[in-house]
Every structure is written in C-alpha cells, then in structure tokens.
Amino acid sequence: MGRVLNDPLIQQIGEVFADLQEPVQILLFETRDNCEYCEETRRLLEEVAAVNSKVGLNVYDLEADKEVAGRYNVTKAPGLVIAARDGEQITDYGIRFSGIPSGHEFSTLISDILLVSKRDSGLAPETRNFLKALDQPLLLQVFVTPSCPYCPRAVYLAHQMALENPRLVLAEGVEAMEFPDLADQFNVQGVPQTVINSGAGIVVGAVPESYLVNEIQRALQN
User: Fold this and answer.
1) Which terminus of the chain has fewer Cβ atoms in its 10 Å neighbourhood, N or C?
2) Residues in CB range of 86: below 8 A, 6 or more apart
3) Rounded to an integer, what distance in angstroms lies between the CA atom of residue 35 and that of residue 32?
4) DSSP-assigned letters across all residues of the chain
5) How far apart are CA 53 and CA 168, in angstroms?
6) Taking CA 129 as the corner, what is the angle to CA 128 and CA 133, rounded to the nearest 5 degrees?
7) pTM assigned to the model
8) By the 8 A CB rule, do 101 and 44 touch?
9) Residue 133: phi, psi to the nearest 5?
10) Per-residue pLDDT of the chain (222 residues; tens, 9 = 90+)
C-alpha cells in the first residue's frame, strides 16, 4: 500500500513544523467495525507524525480502550484528540476532530498541531476574558466537508476557544458526510455549520471571532 502523502507535501509540512515549539500528542481512536476511513486516517497521521519528533501518535481502539475513550469523551471513529505532551504527561485542550482530516481539513490538522505546540490560543483579549469567565460547559461542534474551503477557519476558531478554557470548552470538527445521522440531527444543509451546546445555538458560515462570541453568549442564556 502506497503512502498517503507525496514527497513535496511532506517537505512542505517539514518546513511548517520547523516552527513547532512544544511537543504535541495526537490520540487516534479507531474501530474494526464499519469504519471506512480508520485505516487511511491512521496511515495519514503516522506519516504526519514521522515528519517531526515533536509530534507523537497514540492509536486506540474505541471498544478495547473504552476507558481511555471515555476519559477523552470520544464516541466516534475515526476520532482525533490533539493534545499537548510534556514528558509522559498528556494535557487535553479539548481539541477534537471526528472523521478523516482530508481535503481542506488537512490544513486544519496541521494548524491544530501548530496551535497546541504554541500553547497559546491567539484570540483577542476580550474573547480570552469571556472564555476564562465561563461558569458552564460549552460544546462547539463544527460540521465540515473536505471540499469546503471556508471550513478550516471555522473549525480552527472553535479549537482556539477550547485551548483558552479546556476545563469547560470542548470543540469538535465533524466531517458531515462520515456522520450523516448527526448532521441530520442538527439539520446541516450548508457547511461550515457550528452547533453550540447541542442546538442551543447554530451559526452557519465562517464568521468573525466576535460574532461567534455573541452567538455563544446568546445560546448560553437559553
């Protein structure tokens, strides 16, 4: 079986990863049953992790490693957690992706690795203050497709928010075509679509940071 990534792309990733600061650990959850993209996702992540020693990869089985999956609130396969690594310590920043990060979403994977490596959300001070002051859980599910050029921006913004307050914020990119039942549940007809707290709020499109904050505030008051 051939490689997923070609030489020019691997070289490009290597150049981007030259900016990595702190180690990153990717946790992949897969399953042997009815998972069309699990094997390809694992091969993709193995090739990405091989580019730079600061990127590690752990692979778990959703069924056999139920306890680990439960600890990270992962219920879908392939399911990715982009976490921080410090020696043996893995720190969860609430950054998730469900489905294969292919097409435009491959750039989200690379951006997430850089984000966690910096340990800094890069958000505006007022957004940081709002997220740090949260007193209730916030779930952001961003539905995407690999062919959508605007989707990575929406997923990345949600992941930035999770990094700012991982204790209360969980942000998940969801590949809508791989999980159609979930997409149907939230009536996803266009992507990106960000679902706030399981339908308390819905934002369609890649919107500015301040707009998403306003919609989150509105949803949390419901």
Assistant:
1) N
2) 22, 23
3) 7
4) ---SS-HHHHHHHHHHHTT--S-EEEEEEE-SSS-TTHHHHHHHHHHHHTT-TTEEEEEEETTTTHHHHHHTT--SSSEEEEEEEETTEEE--SEEEES---TTHHHHHHHHHHHHHHT-----HHHHHHHHT--S-EEEEEEE-TT-TTHHHHHHHHHHHHHH-TTTEEEEEEETTTSHHHHHHTT--SSSEEEEGGGTEEEES---HHHHHHHHHHHHH-
5) 30
6) 115
7) 0.96
8) yes
9) -90, 0
10) 678 899 999 999 999 999 999 999 999 999 988 899 999 999 999 999 999 999 999 999 999 999 999 999 999 999 999 999 999 999 999 999 999 999 999 999 999 999 999 999 999 999 999 999 999 999 999 999 999 999 999 999 999 999 999 999 999 999 999 999 999 999 999 999 999 999 999 999 999 999 999 999 999 997
Query: Is the previous residue joined to 78 through a cis bond, with omega within 30 degrees of 0?
Result: yes
- What one-letter code names the amino acid at 185? Q
Phi, psi of 24 (to 5 degrees): -125, 140
Length of the chain: 222
